[in-house]
Amino acid sequence: xxxxxxxxxxxxxxxxxxxxxxxxxxxxxxxxxxxxxxxxxxxxxxxxxxxxxxxxxxxxxxxxxxxxxxxxxxxxxxxxxxxxxxxxxxxxxxxxxxxxxxxxxxxxxxxxxxxxxxxxxxxxxxxxxxxxxxxxxxxxxxxxxxxxxxxxxxxxxxxxxxxxxxxxxxxxxxxxxxxxxxxxxxxxxxxxxxxxxxxxxxxxxxxxxxxxxxxxxxxxxxxxxxxxxxxxxxxxxxxxxxxxxxxxxxxxxxxxxxxxxxxxxxxxxxxxxxxxxxxxxxxxxxxxxxxxxxxxxxxxxxxxxxxxxxxxxxxxxxxxxxxxxxxxxxxxxxxxxxxxxxxxxxxxxxxxxxxxxxxxxxx
Length: 363
Known about the structure:
Blueprint: H1 3-17, E1 30-35, E2 38-44, H2 53-61, E3 68-71, H3 85-92, E4 96-99, H4 111-118, E5 122-125, H5 129-134, H6 136-141, E6 148-155, E7 160-162, H7 174-184, E8 189-193, H8 194-200, E9 217-221, E10 244-248, E11 263-267, H9 277-286, E12 291-294, H10 298-306, E13 312-317, E14 328-329, E15 343-351, E16 354-361
Parallel strand pairs: 3-4, 4-5, 6-12, 6-13, 8-9, 8-12, 9-10, 10-11
Antiparallel strand pairs: 1-2, 1-3, 7-14, 13-16, 15-16
Helix pairs in contact: 3-4
């Protein structure tokens, strides 16, 4: 990789980011075509079913014979709703392809690179960490039956979320709340527990609205008690799919009031009274949800961790203490002592006056 290679690959990553939130179930991908040291074509994948990044870049470039192509992800080698990108690059007569990372999709996974090399095209695979971050939810979901799950929680320095139960109390800054709204854009769905809906009555939207080509989905995890059908999360909103309510199959009558305002998905066998979160996540995948950002309260957050279905975490820490006797802990209602999974930090950000630590649960 020369400095110019790095510069052009950087541009491909910038282009790919434009598709975040719109391309699922496909990954976000960007591509740049360079000839004689000058960019002649650029493109990114806009949404599933539309041309891929390389095709858009080739269309803009016109004649790409002898050119170098920079692409954030290995060109696909299978025919789906669109032709194979590796075939398109071969037919275009490009001389070299610089790839951000191999495609984790078993349908490709090295096949595109092999096809290019067999056609006499030089291929350099960079294995850039940004490429992995860009498609993190896709890389998980394409090889698993459930969605990629991220958990976002906010707490005081002493590990509390409110000074007493049942009240809405902002402890983080306005900048942190805007950060979370932007974070939602990268996920197919945002999920909270029923308690959060009853106390906060959130809309779970992105404000200001993001021009995203794939409708947002909002999800409520319910178990013992229903939520008011007049809650703001059920309001019909442009560019938002019907809100999904996850509930145990043994409690159909309890949630009958929500059938007219939401897509109620019952989980488990007909006698189940508790919501099995593993099965619930699998049910979301069947609903076309590939990634979920959970902003649930302490009970839902703890139970998701205990169930072993949290992949990434975002932990916001506000510079305050909540020392009241009835202050609510950030996690509650589940035994995490025998979790057996370690956490690994990979980002620390200052957001307003708060600190957001993010990372992964190691398998």
